[in-house]
């Protein structure tokens, strides 16, 4: 009996979603929605939230959460990392914020009445 030679098979990772198959229409990823639940801008910074979302997340949602693990990731950076249009990414991000998987920290706003803050600004301006 002659031994059979088996060729090694290269296993390709399974890819899902828009980036893997551009035939998947963006409205398929957003459930037909065309606008996000929350007003997000491309420069809005997101970080991982404190709650774990109920049930399993879609691959695009999981990847968005992974991209925000280090904190301070803009919506535009998430869109680039996912390979999705910006509007689709805004919808995905707003869903993740709504369920607590992502957080959009509110930046501290200076009211202009803090004398220490005004003094520090003046010192730095004088150095310029």
SSE blueprint and pairings:
Elements (H helix, E strand, L loop, with lengths): L16 H4 L5 H4 L15 E4 L10 H9 L5 E2 H8 L3 H14 L2 E2 L11 H13 L1
Antiparallel strand pairs: 1-2, 1-3
Helix pairs in contact: 3-4, 4-5
Structural commentary:
- With 128 residues, the protein is mostly helical.
- It has one domain (17-127).
- It is built from 6 helices and 3 strands, in the order ααβαβααβα.
- The chain has helices spanning 17-20, 26-29, 59-67, 75-82, 86-99, 115-127; strands spanning 45-48, 73-74, 102-103.
- A 3-stranded antiparallel sheet has the order 2-1-3.
- Helix 3 packs across helix 4 (75-82).
- The longest helix has 14 residues, at 86-99.
- The chain starts with 16 loop residues before the first helix and ends with a helix.
- 22% of the residues are buried.
- Residues 9-17 have low confidence and may be disordered.
Summary of the model, kept short:
The protein is mostly helical and 128 residues long. It has six helices and three strands. Helix 3 (59-67) crosses helix 4 and helix 4 crosses helix 5.
In this structure, how is the largest beta sheet organized? 3 strands, antiparallel
Low-confidence stretches: 9-17
Number of helices: 6
What is the element string, with H for helices and E for strands? Answer: HHEHEHHEH
Mean pLDDT over the full residue set: 78
**Alpha-beta content class:** mainly alpha
Helix % is: 40-55%
Q: How would you describe the shape?
A: elongated
Q: What is the oligomeric state here?
A: single chain
Q: Report how far apart the termini are.
A: 86 Å
Widest beta sheet: strand line-up: 2-1-3
Q: How much of the polypeptide forms β-strand, as a percent range?
A: 5-15%
Q: Give the total of domains.
A: 1
Number of strands: 3
What integer value in Å does the Rg equal? 22 Å
